[in-house]
Amino acid sequence: MFYLSTRGDTDRKRFSEILLEGLAPDGGLYLPETYPQVDAATLEEWRNLPYASLAFEVLSLYIDDIPPADLKAICDKTYTEEVFGTKEIVPLRKLEDGLYLEALSNGPTLAFKDMAMQLLGNLFEYELARRGEELNILGATSGDTGSAAEYAMRGKKGVRVFMTSPQGRMSPFQQAQMFSLQDENIHNLALEGVFDDCQDIVKAVSHDLAFKRKYRIGTVNSINWARLMAQVVYYFSGYFQASAATGADKVSFTVPSGNFGNVCAGHVARMMGLPIEKLVVATNENDVLDEFFRTGVYRVRASADTHETSSPSMDISKASNFERFVFDLLDRDAARVAGLFGAQLSNQGFFDLSGDPLFQSAAQHYGFASGKSTHADRLDIIRDTFKRFDTMIDTHTADGLKVARLHLQPGAPMVVLETALPIKFAETIQEALGRLPDRPAKFEGIEALPKRVQVMPVDVDLVKAYIARHVN
Fold this sequence. Notes:
Blueprint: E1 3-5, H1 15-19, E2 30-32, H2 40-46, H3 51-60, H4 68-78, H5 81-84, E3 92-96, E4 99-102, H6 113-131, E5 135-140, H7 144-153, E6 159-166, H8 172-179, E7 186-191, H9 195-207, H10 209-214, E8 217-218, H11 225-246, E9 251-256, H12 261-272, E10 276-283, H13 288-295, E11 297-299, H14 322-329, H15 334-348, E12 350-352, H16 357-360, H17 362-366, E13 368-372, H18 375-389, H19 395-404, E14 414-417, H20 426-433, E15 454-456, H21 460-471
Parallel strand pairs: 4-14, 5-6, 5-8, 6-7, 7-15, 9-10, 9-14, 10-13
Antiparallel strand pairs: 1-2, 3-4, 11-12
């Protein structure tokens, strides 16, 4: 299996190379040359596999430069009941006829990012030991990626983490999860801006090939193919559980989405042949993705125009993973993708595909639909779900449920991907329900712990200087 860049770099690479690299040298994102296909017979063979075994089968289709026995050991080490709290790893819960929640938040940091990040940490440690090398991870987080990465990488040999986040824009619980870590290989940089500023800095450092190579910079954001690939697995698991419960041949998924990584994994699963009817993108007030799927116009927003909301992990106006889907949408025309995401976005701040026949057939060909949710919607859905189903959900999952109900259809059960446990957004839960959510015992008093964080302006040179000081 070889991988290529969405922007046309002709240097084909193996999985182990792109695992440690992140962005391609030309600024593009890596995708496999072709998506491996899974037929009905294979789906039946996989249907009743334990999650770790299912992960091995899916990942084996994309990884052929790690010995199968080693890859299986990594999957078995990652997806355990001890780490994720349940034997099923991602159990499905029925809310009402045709509507289900897939629990993805049972990992160490109580968010769906653990599903991929725990695997990524083990893959990094394995590959670095095999090479006798070190890696310095530079990441950006709007709330959950940072803690999931840091908990996955803390104490790992040969790995340092430099995680940027928007100062004051995460929930107190999210901040405490990250900033209370005292491990020497974990560094938190709170930048005085929004998430998109943090993400821009990660990309700018990745574009500086000399710095990237000198300081061995890698990424854990969903621009890293390995992370997205790991997320493909829970679409298969969700499909098997929902189809078994209902007898349906096809299943739809609704995915709260800001950076397009989570739902892009669903796109990959669908391209592989998983019988997905619809992939519904649920946004909050930062509705860049909803606008695109409704109109064909992709318009990024400036920092000042990015709303601060009660589902803060989706307060994103530049969806970096979106480039992967557009690459497929445009029949993998790398030159055109490079123009759209390079000069055109830089000069105009938007591009318009509304008149392109490829966009006009996108909903039918790729199954995408979308919708948006507001703070008032969030409160209503949290109250309704607790009252009717005795189930407390977080704010992002509420966005998903709100939008999912707009796209229900007979014969295709809808699975909403849960994104985090409610305790991560306690203030809004208190507003909705008049009570605080339950807190796992291991996180009692976390907000009062000493903080280890460096606050700095949005300045790529300052971030580079910080990394240089702490690597040497």
